[in-house]
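Board notes, transcribed. Complex of a protein with manganese (II) ion.
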Amino acid sequence: VKVCVYDDYRLGVLGSDGSVVDISKLAGPLAGTPWAMNELIARFGDVRQAIEELALAGDGAAIEDVVLRPPVPRPRQILAAPLNYGAHILELQDDDASEAREPDARELGFFVKAAGSISGPADPIELPALPHRVFHHECELAVVIGREARSVSPEAALEYVFGYTCLLDITMRMDDTHTEERTLRKSFHSFTPLGPVVVTSDEVGPPGHLHMRLWVNGELRQDASTADMICATEDLIARASRVVTLYPGDVYATGTPEGVGPIVPGDEVRIWIDRVGEMSLRVTQRPW
Ligand code: MN
């Protein structure tokens, strides 16, 4: 099924007729709060049948009449893979780089983005006015964790996945005179757009061959497949789960393929991932 968060943190499922059906009552005590999706995910085994029946019945709100929020507004953690596609590593290297292989996701593991950087399908990407910096789009498949995972094997790791959604890992890059931490550069407000919905893992199937694309103002900038990941999704989850406990609703950004490039206020960014979804986002100057 496809689940979403909309309006005042209501939980929804996309109905067979395309409408958004309210399933907030299935979330438990946190219904109506930004944390409700985490709880729904944690208890999904108990409510799945009820959700599927409501989806089949449909007759909810028209999707154009609701405001979609980030489908997981408050994960405890956002983990992200650095350098997980070979061609992206090459495009970041200096021309005078040595022939030696650069470290990639296998050695580097993961980094974190601040969970407060999340925004939704209806929100603009707000760029701060900072001199000598550029802001890049990174098109990524996001994994949403389904149950507590600690030291799981790669063979079992996909059983801990609730579903998948589209993620933009917006990244500030700078010239040689600035040395901000990666965490800061990727954690500005609205630098982690998520959405438009979470598609459950049974509906997506194995995540190893998903085609993904990103356009800026209609121009194709990124066009790749998750088959090109250096560390596959199950390896990312297994490795991270040996470091930190993963919780229901946690988000894992699996890395960007080649083709990253600058965005500026006035642009429109569109992301599409096969079987997962698509959304278009405006880029604006941050008003604060
Ligand atoms: Mn990234």
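The pocket of manganese (II) ion is lined by residues 80, 138, 140, 169, 253, 255-256 (CB under 6 Å). The helical segments are 36-42, 44-57, 86-92, 105-108, 154-157, 182-185, 201-204, 233-241.
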